[in-house]
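The instructor's notes for this session suggest beginning with a concrete chain rather than abstract definitions. Hand out the sequence below and ask the class to guess, before any prediction is shown, which regions might be ordered.
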Amino acid sequence: MIRLNFCVRWQEEAFAQMKYTPICLASVILMFALTASAQISSSNTSGSQGRPTSAATINSVIDHEISAVEKLVTDAAEAMPEDKFNFSPESLKIPGDDYKGVRSFAVQVKHIAASNYFIWSGITGDPLPASLKDGNGPEDVKTKADILKFLNESFALGHRAAAALIQENMLQTPGKSKSTRLRLAFFGVEHAYNHYGQMVEYLRMNGIVPPASRGKSD
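After discussion, reveal the predicted structure:
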């Protein structure tokens, strides 16, 4: 019950911070529809050239977006060396900075994974991992390898969530959530992108070019 209440409260606070409005929600849904329509047109064009067609759906569009942010986050996490995985800008002691108490790189990654579970489990109905208590992830997940495993498993849940959306349930609110399943599905993507941006800053503070920004000569 404690973890359930935390999950509901965390979602409400996160959504409030993002300041989403009904107009924004409608705009995002429209964006998905337009993207799906464009993919359908592209598929039909391909089909006319002798290749098989596959109609895009809300599920496939959301799943594609999950895959996109999953690759960015995972590649960035893998790019940080093990000995710098617990780096925090607070350690730089920059005069006039305001980094005291900010999450380390490791906890940024764990936070994305933990949030994925809190957000997408509402769609799939999967139970949360037993050791997951809050948004910073399980305390016993510490090594780079274990954190990456936790991250990968959380995105696997996201793909299951995308597949679980159907016309009859996507606009329903699961459990005690105030958000629809569709809202939860794409909010997980938005949240991961937000923290990916912070991961990029941490990499660059350590002289590491994020994989997504590397050219052929890097």
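Then share the key points. Helices lie at 2-18, 22-48, 58-79, 105-124, 144-164, 181-205. The chain has one domain: 57-211.
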